[in-house]
């Protein structure tokens, strides 16, 4: 087994002789260079001094799911005018809902611009990590991948901080249906799409009705001889445009629209104009939460709009609306943005099957009643392992407990970021991190800000470890339950968000909006954590150092707290005169 030189114990022996803001060196290892890993790779080096950051990524490039998923029709559910970083604004989107490849390109541009590539080791697959109590460090094992399997070797690295940026869905799975090896046609999972395969003129089956399934089917429907779509249960389908439908309708369009060249040029040359446009779109998205609150007029209106739109769109095929209409309320499970899917489904060459699949056969798919449908290709849009604990890549915390054991029967992470018994470990886009309204990019930045504050606390106060208390983690879940009880999410429906338990607790939803999450992360409750210090007993405040700041000790600018910013108020002669007049009266 090879090894990367481990991080040394970075604890200066003389903290009392150092300036209060002369931060000790610290190392962080980040697992994954998808959206959350890119967020960490951009933000941490800008905010944390003396930081060594290493990102391990199994793929050849950044992007995570956006790098891996390139099936026909892939695109963001949210318009990228809101689904982009606040610190990296792109005014050049070709369409309101552009293709997935365009968004992947954006992520690569951001990663290049902010130096993420320089900090990332590609083709390094995370295997395991364990907390070394005596050293206050994480020992991480990765597999360096190589085209020549024989030359692949395991490597070890160490760091004070471990950041999981592995996403909610990164371990794709074929459906657990008998006979997969018997099928002699082409079987493809959407997460491993074969770009060389041409579906034109083929008899195709699509299995799965999440966001992926309803994107790929309408993309291939005009090309194929026939397409059968298999769904297991009913589900509500949102109309065109989702939460930003108002903007699409204002443009006189139904589903999407191109941004004219002159508009792109205006957005590019006038940043304030584009910011105003982004704020307009994000404001529309931020307003969605009201429609999820139980027994409200807003929810009644949302339900009525979606039901009426589904009924009208599916009307050309008798019985399809009744097959797809759920008993549960709109919003109990994640809404699918599937207007194009419904319109494709009512075409002559498309058929809906709401049934289980008994097994795969040599020719195709056998139904429970024994009917066999023959296919040239079967496309599996059947999702991912959604346990979130990544049990096949174990992480061992205090006392050797694994994350899978800690998260049995369900994952619990304080504010979605920290886990009891796992010191100095943080995660972006962890359990209960997805807001019900607003931009996930905004929440990633907020969670990353929380991680940054935690690392700075470790650095400045010479802490060996910081770990959330079990009590605080339980209080967090109590808050999740309290908020959920007021929403239609608490209704009776099966969804992987609830681990397919009809009345289960959502393991995905943040208890509120993106704005709510950002504010919750902005001011950490340090009393919710437990600490170990490198400083001796009775010297817990020795981190305050020699009474000076770094600039005083090294003769640099000591007035950096005085700055002229856009927010600064410049007092005018009129201001002073107004007060003088008041005083003389």
Keyphrases for this structure?
585 residues, alpha/beta, FAD/NAD(P)-binding domain, 2 domains, five-stranded parallel sheet, 17 helices, 30% helix, globular, FAD/NAD(P)-binding domain-containing protein, FAD/NAD-bd_sf, FAD-bind_Monooxygenase_sf
Account of the protein in words:
Belongs to the FAD-binding monooxygenase family. InterPro entries: FAD-bind_Monooxygenase_sf, FAD/NAD-bd_sf. The protein has 585 residues and is an alpha/beta fold. Helices cover 30% and strands 16% of the residues. Helix 1 (35-47) packs across helix 13 and helix 5 crosses helix 11. It has 2 domains: 15-170 and 386-533, FAD/NAD(P)-binding domain (3-Layer(bba) Sandwich), CATH 3.50.50.60; 172-236 and 305-328 and 330-383, FAD/NAD(P)-binding domain (3-Layer(bba) Sandwich), CATH 3.50.50. It is globular. The chain is built from 17 helices and 21 strands. A hairpin with an 8-residue loop joins strand 5 (137-144) and strand 6 (153-159). The protein has helices at 35-47, 65-68, 100-113, 116-119, 211-220, 245-250, 261-269, 271-286, 297-314, 320-324, 339-345, 403-406, 440-460, 470-485, 514-522, 550-554, 573-584; strands at 26-31, 51-57, 120-122, 124-132, 137-144, 153-159, 161-164, 186-189, 203-207, 226-231, 237-238, 336-337, 350-354, 359-360, 364-366, 372-374, 377-380, 395-396, 425-427, 463-468, 529-533.
